[in-house]
């Protein structure tokens, strides 16, 4: 149970490539960050050495192979820095299929997880959970407000998250722009995509009188279209942002956190407070809550409902894009990252009360903490299942959510 | 020209093969739930996964006979439908949609997880469980047969034959049910739940029955798929497949007995034709490789389905055979 996040992580997707077979890997742990100059030896099935390489400054290594077959990868433990040890054996035998780039994982142990007993680990997970929950909340505010103002359950909201993350990736990695600037640009892209959603699709559909169920299926279609379009354009790989991968974790006594994660928490808190202030104090924020509460009443008291909905879409798109960048920062950028987050967003929004902005906030925070803390008892790779289970339990106990009112369930 | 004929033949085979049967059975199930009862089950693929793995686990891991495995799969689907229906059927339609899609994704993640590996073999999945079934074929299954320019193995033909029989029997069952009083109550629930309730019918029980029946069809579809491919891998059961089945249903026409069947055949034909055609165009250099590579073609089908779903819902929600008045659903 201690191997996740440690060791030589295999983040290179095993996509078929015509050029030839290759073994790759990254030597890093969450506390030490990437480890440089570790010797990796690759030997064939007969024990003959094929190549011996050292990891670069990002901890990465790769070896081109003469052909498919069985290979043994050995890591020189003498090159590991103090405090980092092997979790198991120092070598691994893998079978490489024809034309494949295969990633190799050798487990490393840096004492950051499980050390110091369950109490400390719980605090560490709580902090991780709060970071994750804030991120879900940011993406989910738009989802909830869109539902509140238009009644649409938008299954394509996850793709707004992915679009933000991928846009920032292209600007940051391909364009060589600083990630902060890239994030702002990605938020602009997100707002534009949100506006396009409303103007090109949903407003005409509302005008046609399309039913809510039909609109829901349309949003599913849009989600499929965008998700697989992103996969064709971006590919099936997962890649980090430039200069931000695997940063060294800083020790805060009872928990450790990378600077990127700390920045993510601070940004989320600031943005969410700003959103709350906007909803509470500004004219457009009050209008949003009014439309959410009772659309007809809002329209008859002189609020331009369509304008409010457009602003909600733009704000939702920008926030989702920001959430996507922060998710890409901690988990790398992937084509289906938004869809996977969408289900947790739904869990958060349902828990908080569908259609209420503050409900989305509270609910998402609880879901984030729950998902991370659940790894105390369940394995890491099924932690999302816990979140989805929570969603179903909420539906049994209190379907209207914490802050929702009963009439919405009907 | 020969290429075009070949692409048409390949597409035709796929419209008659086990994949079309898979989507037809999934769509028949969705038709009962969505078309007749107005229930939004977005997790149909989970029922299919339980059906497929019901056989796979029973035969490969527990060593019990194939037909007992079929019963295990069907029972698992019934249990899942009951578990899903209990909390969500009293709620508004979109809650059921969210809960079912979350369940489908959660179950897939669970089946492919490391902790489930002793039972499901994790991401590698199970294989070698369909021998008993293939052995029942009345002809030589190792030989290849040529039909209308396409080549079928004896096993494929046998799976397709039994599969289409299942589709026909399923369609007949749906036809009979929807003519019965039970079917009329179901359709009235779709139109006006409160009216049905005021007539003293237990709406909840009817909805649950529809959910279970549709789930059983989903499980049968998953079994045909698992037996057809000869393997059960969790990642074959991606949730996008649920929406392929929705596209098939809406294309053919919801709330029509043959809508899902015809829809699945047409959909598979279009998708396979587009697939083969695009690969040909890439191989011949008509489409430059840096615009679209042949590894990307597999994703094109989901893009097509996404566009198709949107256009159908917006411009022709009744599909080919449907009645527009019957499919103008609204959230309740």
TrEMBL record, chain A:
Membrane-spanning ranges: 130-148, 177-197, 209-230, 262-279, 308-329, 341-370, 382-401
Record's protein name: Branched-chain amino acid transport system permease protein
Keywords: Amino-acid transport, Cell inner membrane, Cell membrane, Membrane, Transmembrane, Transmembrane helix, Transport
UniProt keyword annotation of Methyltransferase present: no
Family: Belongs to the binding-protein-dependent transport system permease family. LivHM subfamily.
Domain of life: Bacteria
Coiled-coil portions: none
Subcellular locations according to the entry: Cell membrane
Chief location category: membrane
GO cellular component terms attached to this protein's record: plasma membrane
Signal peptide: none
CDD domains: TM_PBP1_LivH_like (cd06582)
GO biological process: D-alanine transmembrane transport; L-alanine transport; L-isoleucine import across plasma membrane
GO MF term set: L-isoleucine transmembrane transporter activity; L-leucine transmembrane transporter activity; L-phenylalanine transmembrane transporter activity; L-valine transmembrane transporter activity
Topological relation to the membrane, as annotated: Multi-pass membrane protein
SUPFAM superfamilies from the UniProt entry: Carboxypeptidase regulatory domain-like
Matches recorded under InterPro entries: ABC_transp_permease, BCAA_transport_permease, CarboxyPept-like_regulatory
UniProtKB/TrEMBL annotation, chain B:
Membrane topology term: Multi-pass membrane protein
Primary location group: membrane
MF GO annotations: branched-chain amino acid transmembrane transporter activity
Name of the protein: Amino acid/amide ABC transporter membrane protein 2, HAAT family
Subcellular compartments: Cell membrane
Taxonomy of the source species: Bacteria, Bacillati, Actinomycetota, Actinomycetes, Geodermatophilales
GO cellular component terms attached to this protein's record: plasma membrane
TM stretches of this protein: 15-32, 39-60, 66-86, 157-178, 210-228, 240-258, 297-315
Highest rank taxon of the organism: Bacteria
């Amino acid at each position: 149970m201690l191997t996740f996040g440690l060791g030589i992580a295999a983040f290179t997707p095993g996509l078929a490539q015509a050029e030839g077979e290759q073994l790759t890997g990254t030597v890093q742990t969450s506390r030490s960050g990437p480890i440089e100059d570790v010797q990796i030896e690759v030997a064939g099935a007969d024990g003959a050495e094929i190549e011996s390489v050292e990891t670069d400054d990002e901890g990465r290594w790769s070896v081109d192979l003469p052909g498919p077959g069985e290979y043994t990868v050995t890591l020189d433990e003498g090159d590991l820095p103090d405090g980092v040890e092997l979790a198991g054996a120092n070598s691994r035998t893998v079978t490489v299929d024809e034309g494949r780039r295969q990633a190799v994982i050798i487990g490393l142990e840096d004492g950051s997880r499980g050390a110091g007993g369950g109490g400390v680990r719980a605090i560490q997970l709580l902090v991780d959970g709060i970071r994750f929950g804030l991120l879900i909340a940011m993406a989910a505010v738009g989802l909830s407000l869109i539902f509140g103002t238009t009644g649409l359950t938008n299954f394509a909201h996850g793709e707004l998250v992915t679009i933000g993350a991928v846009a920032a990736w292209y600007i940051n990695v391909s364009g060589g722009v600083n990630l902060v600037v890239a994030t702002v640009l990605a938020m602009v892209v997100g707002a534009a995509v949100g506006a396009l959603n409303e103007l090109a699709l949903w407003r005409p559909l509302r005008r046609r009188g399309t039913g809510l169920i039909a609109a829901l299926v349309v949003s599913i279609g849009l989600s499929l279209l965008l998700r697989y379009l992103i996969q064709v354009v971006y590919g099936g790989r997962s890649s980090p942002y430039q200069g931000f991968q695997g940063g060294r974790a800083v020790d805060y006594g009872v928990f450790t956190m990378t600077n990127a994660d700390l920045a993510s928490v601070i940004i989320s808190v600031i943005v969410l407070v700003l959103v709350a202030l906007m909803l509470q104090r500004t004219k457009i924020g009050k209008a949003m809550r009014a439309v959410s509460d009772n659309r007809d009443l809002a329209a008859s008291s002189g609020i331009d409902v369509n304008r409010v909905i457009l602003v909600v879409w733009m704000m939702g798109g920008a926030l989702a894009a920001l959430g996507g960048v922060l998710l890409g920062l901690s988990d790398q950028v992937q084509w289906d990252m938004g869809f996977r987050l969408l289900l947790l967003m739904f869990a958060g929004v349902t828990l908080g009360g569908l259609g209420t902005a503050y409900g989305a906030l509270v609910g998402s925070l609880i879901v984030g903490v729950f998902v991370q803390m659940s790894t105390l008892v369940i394995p890491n790779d099924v932690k999302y299942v816990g979140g989805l289970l929570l969603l179903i339990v909420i539906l049994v106990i209190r379907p209207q959510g914490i802050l929702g009112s009963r009439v919405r369930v009907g | 020209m020969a290429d075009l004929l070949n692409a048409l033949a390949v597409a035709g085979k796929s419209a008659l093969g086990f994949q079309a049967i898979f989507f037809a059975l999934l769509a028949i199930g969705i038709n009962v739930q969505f078309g007749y009862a107005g229930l939004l089950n977005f997790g149909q693929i989970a029922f299919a996964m339980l059906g497929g793995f019901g056989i796979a686990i029973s035969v490969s891991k527990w060593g019990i006979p194939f037909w007992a495995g079929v019963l295990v799969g069907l029972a698992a689907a019934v249990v899942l439908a009951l578990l899903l229906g209990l909390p969500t059927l009293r709620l508004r339609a979109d809650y059921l949609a969210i809960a079912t899609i979350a369940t489908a994704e959660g179950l897939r993640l669970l089946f492919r997880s490391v902790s489930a590996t002793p039972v499901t073999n994790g991401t590698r999945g199970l294989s070698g469980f369909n021998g008993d079934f293939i052995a029942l074929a009345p002809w030589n299954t190792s030989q290849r047969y040529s039909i209308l320019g396409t080549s079928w193995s004896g096993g494929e033909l046998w799976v397709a034959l039994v599969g289409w029989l299942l589709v026909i029997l399923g369609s007949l069952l749906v036809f009979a049910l929807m003519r019965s009083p039970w079917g009329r109550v179901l359709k009235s629930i779709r139109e006006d739940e409160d009216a049905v309730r005021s007539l003293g019918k237990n709406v909840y029980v009817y909805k649950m029955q529809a959910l279970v029946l549709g789930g059983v069809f989903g499980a049968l579809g998953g079994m045909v798929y698992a037996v057809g491919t000869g393997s059960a891998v969790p990642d074959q059961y991606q949730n996008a497949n649920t929406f392929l089945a929705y596209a098939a249903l809406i294309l053919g026409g919801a709330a029509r007995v043959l809508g899902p069947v015809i829809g699945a055949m047409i959909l598979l034909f279009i998708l396979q034709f587009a697939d083969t055609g695009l690969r040909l165009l890439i191989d011949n250099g008509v489409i430059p490789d840096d615009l679209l590579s042949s590894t990307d073609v597999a994703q094109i089908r989901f893009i097509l389905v996404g566009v198709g779903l949107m256009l159908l819902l917006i411009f022709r929600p009744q599909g080919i055979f449907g009645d527009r008045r019957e499919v103008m659903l609204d959230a309740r």
